[in-house]
Amino acid sequence: MPPLDRPVADPPASGLPTTRLIVLIGPPGCGKSTLARQWQAAAPDRHWISTDAIRAELFGDAAVQGDWSAIWQVVCDRLQTAIVNAADAVYDATNADPRQRQRILETARELGFSQIIGWWVQTPLEQCLAWNAQRDRQVPAHVIERMAQQLDRSPPELAEGFDQLEIMTLTSNCPATPSLNHPLLTQPNQWSFSGHG
Question: Which domains does the chain possess?
Fold first, then answer.
């Protein structure tokens, strides 16, 4: 994988604030929420939109799948809040299905996000299962395996509408690329191109 060291210029100045959305992609247990938490901690004004957290708020338990339309409405409300506050956001969900990715991409564009970056977290399945076994709320192993297979069959592509698609491999609590000290995580207005797509 080429190093992530070529900054991408911000869009031309239009007088409008630049708002970026990171769309996390990966099976349960791959480290998406850990990345999102650390990304937000680097700049607390960033918005972390987690479907698991929304399920816990709406239904009292993140494991309850519940009414997707109610969950999606909260996702849209929080995306809109990020736009109103001119804040970058991360959408923390599996996004294993291309239709799910299409929906978030279209919605984010309609709401006004100027740049949408996919972070495809490619943690080995064995590591996902091991991390899942350490969680308080465990996802059934067959669900993790099914979502990993779905991503193998229908991997995210730049052509889906992402401005950038970063591929990360996590084999421990830190991503191999980009590092947690990389500008993608630490600098709110610095984004880099990995050459993947």
Answer: 18-193 (3.40.50.300)
